[in-house]
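Dear all,

This email documents one entry for the complex benchmark we are building for the journal club exercise. For each entry we list the sequence lines for every component of the assembly. Then comes the predicted three-dimensional structure of the complex as a token string, followed by one or two observations. Please use this as the template for your own entries, and keep the labels exactly as they appear.
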Amino acid sequence: MTEKRYDFSTIESAWQHRWDGMRAFAVDLSQATNPYYVLEMFPYPSGRIHMGHVRNYTMGDLVARYKKARGYDVLHPMGWDAFGLPAENAARERGLHPAKWTWENIATMRAQLKALGLSIDWEREIATCHPEYYRHEQGYFLDFLDAGLAVRKDMWVNWDPVEQSVLANEQVIEGKGWRSGADVERVKRKQWCLDTAHYADELDRALDDLSAWPEAVKTMQRNWIGRSQGCSIDFVVSRADSADKADSAGKAGSAGKADSTDKAGSAGKADSTDKAGSADDATKQETISVFTTRPDTLFGMTFLALAIDHPVAEALAAQDAGLAAFIAECRKGGTAPRGEEIEKRGYRSSLQAHHPFRPDWTFPVYVANYVLLEYGTGALFACAAHDQRDLDFARQEGLTVVPVVAPTGVDPLADPDAAQVDNEAYTGQGTLFGSDFLDGLTVQEAIPAAIARLEETKQGTGETIYRLREWLVSRQRYWGCPVPVIHCHDCGAVGVPRDQLPVRLPEDIDIGTHGNPLDHHPTWRHTACPSCGKPALRETDTFDTFFESSWYFARFLSPRDTTQGFDAKLAAQFLPVDDYIGGIEHAILHLLYSRFFFRALKQAGHCAIDEPFKRLFTQGMVCHKTIKDPATNAWIFPTDAERDPENGLRHRDTHVPLAEGASVKMSKSKRNVVDPDDIIATYGADTARLFILSDSPPNRDLEWTAAGADAIHRYLKRLYRHIDGVIDTALADGLPPATKTPEAEEATTATMRMVHTTIKTVTEDIDRYHFNRAIARIRELTNYLFVQPLSAPVYEGWMTVLRLFNPIVPHLTEELHARIQPDQLLVSAPWPSWDAEALVSPQEEISVQINGKMLCRVAYDVALTDEAVLEVVCTTPKVAQAIEGRQARRAPILVRGRIVNFILAP
RNA sequence: GGGGGUUUGGCGGAAUUGGUAGACGCAUUGGACUUAAAAUCCAAAGGCCGUACGGCCGUGCGGGUUCGAGUCCCGCAGCCCCUACCA
């Protein structure tokens, strides 16, 4: 027979059509007895798929096909995270309607994904921009509204005055809007929020039970949730109209800068967020609540500081032009001064604070830019000696610093200098001094003691707070899901009646204007109040797109259900998602929002699940080499560079010398992107899939190399040709009859041992996501089989290779398999099991060591006793020579199948 | 500043979880086939010394535990990622 070419493009498109035609991957969930849900994070339809997608979906496809072979009813769907800003940008730049742009991208990317031969049930495809998708999340939002989980409140946000829109923190670059370049302002605006903080405690604790999540992701979530134990303290404050009274201990400074001449006419109001009853109402004292984790350092307090947007600071500013100016100055630059530390600045207010245990001690109250409004109560008490930030501020403002914790081994009475701090705060363990009833206690003992005293005197409470706050879901954007609310002059914010959902986006919009196109639409927002019928206005905010991605995995269960978002019974069967695969960049936002969302859905009675993802796998990035022109510093396409043996790396056309840079994540700007379409056209999907799963462990970065892809393709050609030839022979002549010679029988058991060992290790490796190792084991088997003369066991070996390789190179294996069994798809064939007996070898080898140093390997019969094994080892010439005449210091250490170690005198 | 990860040949990586370090590949070199090249096949290959048999060294660095350490413990360094005035 003539050798057939490995015609991958014909093979691949033929099998893709056949799988499609026979609905090979469609799954009827209601009939599923053995449910298993494999999901990769769904893509944003940006235009074309990239290698990161290929890696993500290839890994998921391997798992899905493997689980199907293991007998599961595998749900493996695909959809589109279709709302978002890039669609509006494209509309502005190219005059395309966001919907048109999005749907065209989806069509392109769907075709690209199909060319990869993924085992996806495309009948379940969804796009989040479809009204039949977002109508359900509008319903969920109304539920959250009813449950008090969704609220509209004043929030400090980044406001771009040119765009006339709120910006996300990451859209503020060095204090300026990322697109307009305008100075971003910090403004208060009514925004819709979901009360994620309501579940902060549970979201934190439940991480402990997510045993199949990467520790790194759980750690990131814990840090983000930011559980912090301490206490709140209500400081009594009064006006410092009279001259500063230095307290007896000289702690409260008059050392502050000159007071503002413009005293506030009235003291700030008590913080309305105070715990009820914590202030002594009878005496009508004003208090400011602070949160602290270090109440033990109260006796080292030297000042109180408020965030610039603290209600008390605002009230004071109304009476104090200097303070108002200071606050206005600080507000420039938006809410997110990321990156380098800002310069600490403060303004001394007209208030003074009283020490909870020594009411006659008073301290200045500052308004300071380094105090965060969003953390704790937006106010803090400062013990500068034991907090670096407070110390920095104190040194700058010339405030007193009073240490109260002596490091272990330091006696502050004997050596007063030793406990002093210079410009470095002491934050470690130690013993309290100069602290009244806390003296002599360790930091760990003093914290509860201080809290107890504060609680006794009703000035504070032990408390656990969280960094996690509400999730701001309002966006002043067109291309998102409309918030289903109507604002009525008389009735306030009223939810849109459920029978009027979905609130659809208008299609006739003018995207060219600044701000939110929905605001500028001539008619869309005008409607009637559902409750009183008077003219009213629709909410024009749309949801953050993380809203859509918080529940899409449930929608796949019931993608065409018009009555509900998903079916609770199916959810009970298929959720949580068994295997969820995606990039680590979603470690916090998407995954945390989804975990919140399902708790909220459960509270609203939609399902009984808390955690949406059982096992999470985070894949590494796809990297590629970069090439630069050192003269111009411009990035060069690697395909435009060639290596000249004499002159090194040169540009192919201009011949200027080039320099090879690091291998970094593929990006258009660095010109190191490899287009999946090109790879599929040149080598086929199977080559791309095998290359991307070989070598690199899935959780690490993968380096794409042209040579590697080429080598993989050569291997597949050889594999195809060889197995094809084996099948030719088997079909034409039949397999050679087994010979009964001892050598032939030994060859048979050796082959079977190899085959079954491979089945076992490959199965275990896939279960543990060690795909690169699984492939190495399969290649080991094929290397072995390539050189064996054809026999029944060798033939069986090749059939096993087809089955084991099918989830990785599905088209090639299916094509070859169809030659033997045209009536059965490999895709539906069961995974092979291994025969434990076939794994057993009559002989095993042991490593021989002398005093822990390797000497040699010795083989022996497994049936031998320990004594007999030692006998065999000791009579091996090389060993006998090494131990001859030397005295044993102890009995040899024998670990069968591993090692024997002789401990001899030198 | 805080947290996490990582460090093994020229390169990607493997090592039965404390028992032959370098599986499986990439790149390389030699050979076969060919008029020649490509393709294909076979072989070599951690470093140093040696013609070979072999010997010594070797898993970022320094200690420790152990019969035995890439693996466990302590300390240090480099690189990567996340986060950041979180009181």
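Observations: The first helix of chain A runs from residue 8 to 21. The first strand of chain A starts at residue 35 and ends at 40.
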